[in-house]
Amino acid sequence: xxxxxxxxxxxxxxxxxxxxxxxxxxxxxxxxxxxxxxxxxxxxxxxxxxxxxxxxxxxxxxxxxxxxxxxxxxxxxxxxxxxxxxxxxxxxxxxxxxxxxxxxxxxxxxxx
Length: 112
Known about the structure:
Layout: E1 16-18, E2 21-23, E3 30-32, H1 39-42, E4 59-61, E5 65-66, E6 73-74, E7 79-80, E8 84-85, E9 92-96, E10 100-104, E11 109-111
Antiparallel strand pairs: 1-2, 2-3, 4-7, 4-11, 5-6, 8-9, 9-10
Domain Protein YjdM N-terminal: 4-32
Protein name: Alkylphosphonate utilization protein
Domain Protein YjdM C-terminal: 45-112
């Protein structure tokens, strides 16, 4: 059995099945079990060198990246642990020490 997806409304991880529906106990959102596609099945994300990435991987930044809305910079060689893959333009969701949560593009990282 595959793990249930987080709630699309509040991102709660405590979703459960109720018949043909998936339900979030925190916000009360309900959605059809057939509507969701497991994130692992739909994403084929690769790093700058073409290596496939998975949730929980550790990656290294290969280019200085300016943090939008701040004077901070993510330096070359910064290691980012425990990434989470998401769909969209910025396809890596992570937390960087000293900066906080942010999204990265897979084209600017390599698998460590």
